[in-house]
Amino acid sequence: MADTRNPGTIMGEKVIAARIQLAREHLDRLRAILKEPGRWISVWFLAYALLGAVSSGLLPILLPLMIVTLTHHLSWVAYVMGGFNLGLLTSPLWGGVADSKHLHRPIFFGGFLVLLMALAAMPFLPGILTWSGLSLLAGAGTSAVATMASLFIVEFDPQNEWEPRLGWLQTFNGGGQVGGLLLAGIFVSNFKVGLICAALALIPAIWLGAKGLPTAARHHGWAAEVGDRMRRDLDWRFLANFGRPELLGGGLLRFSHHLSLHGARRLGDVLHTRFGRFLLSWFAVAFGVAAFFAYFPVAMQKAYSVAPALTSSVYAMTAAVALVLYSMGGQLSGRFGAGRVYRWSLMLRFLGFGLLLLVFFLPIPRTLIALAGFVLIIIAWPLQSISGTTLTARLTPFSQGEAMGLFNASGAVATVMGTFLAGPLVHLIGYPSLSALALVGILLGWLMGHGLQASDAAPARPDDLLAQKAQS
């Protein structure tokens, strides 16, 4: 029987059916996207998120404020926070012990326990030496957990799953940092309760780890150590594709298993190359900004009249926004060259610290200007992090694994040194010294970063090194 309906009606029904089919396809695609993270996420990732909340969110806010409030000694902040950063440098030790003794789970849970006990004891045991020692233990515990978390993925998951799993692991850590910063705004009026709650938050982290972690580590021969495999096999492009928390001076926890000093023996070979110049640039910047990040909650309150709760809230919101800027930074590095993007990021940070210093010399409202500068400083980190990682991989004259070790070690050592220097500077000069030192470090880094890599520049090669040696 022929269809006697109006041709227009038939056409309209076909259009509606096509739209319904298209909507179903979009819905199916959305469901697939939402299900995708489930392939890579494990229950114990939540434990790592709690670590991020405590070590990257609560501690950097509460600890400096507590020290200044209880002691009125500004210089103590630098020494206590310096102890924490120094503890973070123990990552190669934990990685080596895990590789040789296969003590992954004891180190993981031991790190949580050490961090928990250090935080719980801090409010009740005042004193510069006691606080510095406890802070050192807290940093070492944090480093142990972070290092083992990455190694657990490599130990138990196929190599083709390392990258997405590590990416989600660090994303959980960054999300935890945002939550911790928001919680810090609640506890700024009662530091003791805040630190005790931070310690208590690690109890469910231990439970989540016990519930989700593999029961035993795989055994590897001495010639196939896990750390070496990671440094050799991980793709550097992946390292720049996800958010890393801005921890104190600049993200000491980002892929802490790459915080290896084994490549230090190569330092003398690269000092006269573009890669060596980049390492010096990165060192100068990390050294310069470390002092500010040790003191920022106190400085924002005392020097710029920004309430600690507002500082932590703005930091949290800016860090959350910054997490989505990493992909943009990668696109910019691919389009304009990582060298240019790196210097752009330094210009943003220079402008931010410039605003913080400017308010001391001009009759302008400090609070709003300081907040604007603070936002610029934090928001520039994704560009700096991604472009720095890309430059490391492209400029290195030897293996990318050794280069990543030098890259992370240079920033970490500079951060520790800059943090300890902050104490005498603040004591002798005051808060303007924090932004002034940052400006000097960033300017030196910017100057040394000139001409590192144009968008079409080729990576340095071992042959280039030999030729330079022959010429010298």
From TrEMBL:
It comes from the Bacteria. Keywords: Membrane, Transmembrane, Transmembrane helix. It holds the Pfam family MFS_1. The chain crosses the membrane at residues 43-70, 76-95, 107-125, 131-154, 166-187, 193-210, 275-296, 308-329, 341-362, 368-391, 403-422, 428-447. The keyword Transmembrane applies. The keyword Cell wall biogenesis/degradation does not apply. GO terms for molecular function: transmembrane transporter activity. PANTHER family: C-METHYLTRANSFERASE (PTHR23518), MAJOR FACILITATOR SUPERFAMILY TRANSPORTER (PTHR23518:SF2). This is MFS transporter. It comes from Acidithiobacillus ferrooxidans (Thiobacillus ferrooxidans).
